[in-house]
Structures are given as C-alpha cells and as structure tokens.
Amino acid sequence: MYDVQVQTELNAGLHMARLSITEAIKQSGVSRTHFYGKYINKGLISVSEHGGKKYIDSSELVRVFGELKGEDTKTVQTQTESNAGLQTEIKLAVQTEQIKHLKEQLSESKQREQQYIEREQYHREQIKLLEAPRINPIAKWWRGL
Q1: Residue 55 near residue 19, CB atoms below 8 Å
Q2: Which of 49, 59, 62, 65 is 20–30 Å from 30 (CA)?
Q3: For residue 137, how far is the Cα from the chain centroid?
Q4: Could you report the per-residue pLDDT of 45-80, keeping only the tens digit for each?
C-alpha cells in the first residue's frame, strides 16, 4: 500500500518539472486574468496540488502553448534538480522498506524450517518408541522346549 503510493509519486515526477501557477503564467507569456479565465477555469490546463500548493506540470504548458518562454529556465532546472533529489529519496525509502520486508520474510522462513526439523526429529523418536522388538520365530519355538 505504502509502496504503491510512493511509486505513484515517483512516476508522476519523472518526466517534467512542476511549476507554480505564477511561474507557469510567466512561461506562457499571457496575462494572469487571461490564463485563469481561458485555461485553468475551462480545464484546458490541469492543476495538481502537492503539499498544499498548486502546481502545473511544464508538460501541460508545452501541450497548450507549444514552446515555452525562456525567462525562467533556471527555475525549471532548479525544480527539476530538486525533483531528482526527491525521486532519489523516494527510491531509497521504497528500497529500504523492501529490504525490511524481505528480512522479515527470511526470518519467518528460518523459524518454519527450524520447527519442521524439530517436528521431524520428534516423530522419528516416537516411531522408535512404538516399534515392537523383533523376535525371531524360530528362536521362540526352541525356547518352548
């Protein structure tokens, strides 16, 4: 469950940088009123929320406006780098959880194996106790004389 959420967040941030709405407006080159009225309110550009802040994927802007204005490329690069750092942290967290889970499974497996060995040893001892002593039928006949 936790892994699925982390993986979804990881996959969501792999391709494009998230821009704040202000940065997106600067990149698009249109006025704030026009941007909200024509693109956001009509649903032409989807807005996502992360950590209580609203963001727009730069891929959405490229889809709607084509090529973006180059004024804030440094901001986009910085956010892409921070997304890469976040992705690395998420991957590390996922791998740490997987290792923890695998260690638990290994421990449980070793316990089951030890229980099986002990059970098998107990059963062998019980079989030895239940076996009747073997008497040679010929020797028994001679004893009666």
Answers
A1: yes
A2: 49
A3: 71
A4: 888 888 888 888 888 888 888 777 654 455 555 666
